[in-house]
What we know:
The chain is mainly α. 77% of the residues lie in helices and 0% in strands. It has 17 helices and no strands. It is globular. Mean pLDDT is 82; it is low at 1-11, 208-227 and 435-451.
Amino acid sequence: MRRAGDGKSGGDGLIAQLRQPPGGRDARTMLIAQCVDRTGTGVWAAASVLYFTFVSGLDARQLGLLLGVGAVAGIAGSPLAGRAAERLPVRTLLIGCHLLRLVTMLLLLVADDLATLLPVVALTSLGERAAKTLEMLFATRVAGERRTIYQALFRSVANAGYAVGAGIAALGLAVGTPNAYRALILANALSYVVAAALVWQTREPAGHGLIVAHSDTSDNSASEAPAPSTPTPWRDPGYLLFVLLDIPMNLDDAILNVGLPLWLVHHTSAPHAVVPAFLVVNTVLVVVLQLRVSAWAEGPRRAAAAVGWYGMTLLAGCLLLATATGGAAWSASLAMLTAALLVTLAELLRSVSSWELAVVLAPPRARASYLGVAGMAQSVQKSVGPLLLTGAVMTAGPAGWLALGAAVTGLSVVQRQASLRRLTALTAPASGSRTRRRAALPATDRECRPR
């Protein structure tokens, strides 16, 4: 059987991999569900700000408060989902998240003041982040060692879904009436219904939500020993350091969605029509290249190396942004589009490294709660990243981009070294335990074992 890490998987092609994804039928059904979900999310993401402004009647201050509360609530979604997944089936929890967001979307149709909208948006964000963590857990159990290939397939179909959703939203925004906006909300709500129905058709991954450490029944002394207590990520400094360093490793998201458009508009001579091209470049590259990048960086050691390449790639993008302020419109446009390309390449590398390292650096018997804490990195970045860019980086001008690129590059080196040290520490006890068990065997048994 060919393995994803041998370099051939990336050459099999996206369509072939989607037909036979790691994990078989259940993985394929989940990918379809994720694509439907992201299509609805793309619809709402493109229309939400305008809906709250023109239909709900919120001013800029109220809108900022609403989005900020939603972002903070989303931070709690990942650890709550991880904790719950240690006790309840992942499949059931994921269906619950889809149904929760279905209810909150329908409530938006009748909520007409800020006090009502705040808890509705908060619950929507919490359910969204929880669902993403549960999808990660599903993939780690169904796809197993080929989870990076599954992640690549997911990102490809997710970006395609976002693009389709944005196109659907464009039709409603072109009409511009309150009923057109409400139709977009219903379209998003419908996506949750379809996604929940698809998840219902999958089978619960091995573990049934509860991760149990398996003991070696052939070792009598081990079987008689009491079961070790389940570790908690909140008391694991090494893993918390990984999560903390992973926050700046997600800044490509804020740079692409906030930094590039604002920098182009306020600091370059490039035409504003270039801004939509950033999303086009990002979407096309993710769909085309994610599978190949994931195959190249598959495995713990390669994922750790990808962290270093992430920092260097993002630094190159920041250098281009710093130099895009002068020159003609065509040269500024070229520099901005190249920067968008580099930021997207950094995103491709980050998606592999963050995903793989979050899994392999976690103890197997407590992986659900650990991945829940790891998911907080993206949520925190979504809350802090835009403020960092608008309040510090762009205020400082080109020097701000240079400082940001240098800082992220330095932190990527720290993240890489810290991850490699933890990988070594995690593998050493396992190899030592196998050596001790082999040494404890009678001499005749050792001689009969195949070498």
